[in-house]
Write a structure and sequence with these properties.
Rossmann fold; 34% helix
């Protein structure tokens, strides 16, 4: 029976410094030696994911941007894309304007890389977010009016006041082709983040695609946030670190150790009897 282990990155496999610790690195090696396949399902772009994965032998297809795209390292290309139409992008941007929320539009460029185009940055957190995309996630960041005509849009993101983000999320629920993910951006500052995707661009749908195409029999998933719920729903076993939000913990088979403390690695060693 072929098993595929799927990891969310931020808040799950990565520690508080957004890195894979030596202990988790050793655990991944033991997992590979035991013949157990693994990959990632993350909200990050290819550039942002590659930065933390490049030395850790993630050779299977990567589920990126919450399932909107699947990157195949062996082909050096995307095998699947679920992009937003121009009409959908226009509709979302109009809603952002009405709520006075700054959009961050993620595109898929002709060379396969990603770029981000943003509206006017009105607050310190928005400016820090743009800087993070550029400095830490290695993404080209440009003003929204520089976006190419007919750009291929993967998702639209934002960070803003909770009431405005919730209003946007409520509006998206009525759109059959769209889905929105949200969560707390900065504790104690009443700020939330959100990502809007094509509805088929979910982690769960992408995992089912890999399961069918690669012949896996069982899926074991690890995640901590709202964007992980769809993969929990399709997994045979789903586990949440203790730092996960309550909705994810409710769906998990078991709540395990904190991501700051190599919780996933400790669980894997016990679950598969891995020994150095």
């Amino acid at each position: 029976m072929l098993t595929l282990v799927v990891f969310d990155l931020d808040g799950t496999l990565l520690n508080g410094q957004s890195t894979i610790t030596p202990y988790t690195t050793e655990t991944l090696v033991l997992l590979e030696q035991a013949g157990i396949a693994y990959t990632v399902a993350t909200g990050r772009t290819l550039q942002a994911a590659t930065g933390v994965l490049k030395q850790h032998r993630f050779t299977l297809p990567h589920i990126l941007k919450n399932g909107a795209v699947i990157w195949c390292p062996d082909q050096n290309d995307y095998s699947h894309r679920h992009l937003l139409t121009q009409d959908e992008v226009a509709q979302v941007l109009t809603a952002f304007t009405l709520q006075d929320v700054t959009p961050f539009v993620f595109t898929l460029e002709d060379d396969g890389r990603h770029a981000v185009y943003h509206g006017r940055l009105k607050s310190g957190p928005e400016k820090k977010l743009a800087q993070l995309f550029e400095d830490e996630r290695h993404l080209p960041v440009e003003p929204l009016d520089a976006i190419p005509h007919g750009a291929r849009v993967i998702n639209v993101s934002a960070m803003g006041p909770e009431l405005a983000i919730r209003a946007l999320t409520d509006g998206i629920r009525d759109e059959p082709q769209l889905v929105a993910y949200t969560g707390t951006a900065i504790e104690g500052q009443n700020l939330c983040w959100m990502d809007i995707h094509h509805r088929r661009g979910s982690k769960g749908n992408a995992i089912n695609t890999l399961k069918q195409e690669r012949g896996f029999d069982r899926i074991i998933a690890f995640g901590d946030g709202e964007n992980d719920i769809s993969m929990f729903e399709v997994a045979d076993e789903a586990y949440a670190p203790s730092n996960a939000n309550d909705d994810v913990k409710t769906l998990a088979k078991q709540v395990i150790g904190h991501h700051h403390e190599d919780g996933i690695a400790h669980f894997l060693r016990q679950r598969f009897n891995l020994r150095p």
